[in-house]
Every structure is written in C-alpha cells, then in structure tokens.
Automatic annotation (TrEMBL):
Organism of this sequence: Rossellomorea vietnamensis
Listed pathway(s): Cofactor biosynthesis; (R)-pantothenate biosynthesis; (R)-pantothenate from (R)-pantoate and beta-alanine: step 1/1
Keywords annotated in UniProt: ATP-binding, Cytoplasm, Ligase, Nucleotide-binding, Pantothenate biosynthesis
Binding site for beta-alanine: Q61
Residues where (R)-pantoate binds: Q61, Q152
InterPro entries noted in UniProt: Cyt_trans-like, Pantoate_ligase, Pantoate_ligase_C, Rossmann-like_a/b/a_fold
Annotated active site: H37
Protein name according to UniProt: Pantothenate synthetase
GO CC annotations, alphabetized: cytosol
Amino acid sequence: MKKYTSISSIQEFLVKEKRRGKTVGFVPTMGFLHEGHLTLAQQARRENDIVVMSIFVNPLQFGPNEDFESYPRNPERDAELARSAGVDVLFLPEADEMYSGSSIKMHVTERTQVLCGSKREGHFDGVVTVVSKLFNIVGPDNAYFGLKDAQQVAVIEGLVNDLNFPVNIVRVPTVREDDGLAKSSRNVYLSDSERIEAPVLNKSLKDAERLIREGEADPGRIISYIQNRISAETSGIIDYIEIYSYPELTPIDQLQGEFIIALAVKFNKARLIDNIIIKAAQEEIHHV
Ligand code: PAF
C-alpha cells in the first residue's frame, strides 16, 4: 500500500495509472476506521482497479463548539485496517496542504436545512469543500459513501450534479448488527438495557415500510406509528422522526416516489440515528 501526504505526488501517481486505463475507486474518510469504512473500501476493491482512501480530519466541517481537537485519531491502526480491506493508496494530507488559499467559499443552499444539517450550521459547506478538493486531487471514477449518513449522500449527489464532477457516487447500505442495529462507534455508550432496546429503531422503520407496502400513504400516520413504537418500547428520547423526498430532502404529502424516513433518538450517553430509503412506486426497495 502506497502512502502520500502531498497533493502533487498522489496526483502524479494517479494520472499515470489512469493513462494506463486503470479505474479508480475512492473512499474519503476522517480516519479512526470502523467496519462501515471497511465495507466501503471492500466494495471499492471489487469494483475498481485501484482503491484510494483519504484520511483527513477536515477542520472546515466542525463548528466552533464541536470536537475537532478531540476527534479520535489513530493513523497506524487505520493504515493496517485500510491495507486489510484492499486499499492500494492512502492519502494523508495535513491541513496546510489541503487549505493553502482562501479565495473561494462554498455554500450549500439545499438539502441542508433539515435533519442533522439544521443543527450543524456550516457543516455541509465544509463537507462539499473538502470533497470537491478530494475529487479534483484523486479524479475517481467511483466514490463510495455510506447511507447511514443519508443526508451527506444527498448533499454530495447535489454537488456532483450541480458542478458536473465526472464521478459516479455509489450509495453503500448501512452495515448492521445481527439484530438490525446500525453499526456505530457510539453503540458502546449504550447501557445493557438500552442496547437491548436500540434495535427497535430499525424494526420500527422496517415495519413502517411494510405498512407503506400495504397501502399507507400518509407521512403523518407513519411518523406517529414510529413515534409510538419507540416511545413504548425504548427509554430513548426522540430527537426527530422525519420524512422527505430523497435525495432532494423536500417535504412530501404522499408517500410516493423515492423518499427517506430518518430518525434520531437520544439515549443516556448516545444519540443514535437511522433511516430507511424507500422507492414506493417501484418494486425495488433500498434497505439501508
Ligand atoms: O463522512 C465523512 O467522514 C466526512 O464527512 C467526509 C466525507 C470524509 C468529508 O470530510
């Protein structure tokens, strides 16, 4: 596995490989890798000649009261895990290398006023800035993003459409425990009893999907159904349960076309998020 810290050297390597006709799959991360990242890398491995992973804790996407300084970092362990997942090239730039000028500011105008975006002002501006730069540096054919963070996927798809990046965005389903709980580094903060309750989040989303399949088309009734299940069967406090068209993330009156049901629930020491994306008009349903 090759490691690069400078933009010019990774570009030089990848330009040569692409001239030889090699396809490039790209997995952008902020490091401290977990199974979710490794699943993205393994899928990229299967679908591309060269797999590039970036590890860069992007200061621009952290708010002033967020945990940029204390964000967990473990580059040695990350390198081992990346290698084992089939990564060929690791890109580990310093902040000075990534942000040498300041003449451009990117601002996302849609898809960010709802869900987690509404609570993290400027977060997605920082995400699209770094992802644009990384796309320009790596020039990937395919870039892999996990649907656990479905709003990020929607924002990146908007970015690629609006700015015509020649990159195929691959939506990768959420990795789950056997009981359906979405894998997250925060799950360790659940108490034993909360851990037993937590799969209700995914179960209620799946049961809501069944109700929709059976003909329920009213978003309000689906939201109430999920609210009641989570309140009755867990000790968690519901932060939000919302339904929007996907990936546009605009409100809908009827459960038609492609839409997302997304939720966030606060337990004592962990706030969990989960979602399901449903294509109601067609047979194909994305379980995420
Ligand atoms: O999902 C993440 O880890 C980050 O938001 C990303 C896409 C690597 C950009 O910094």
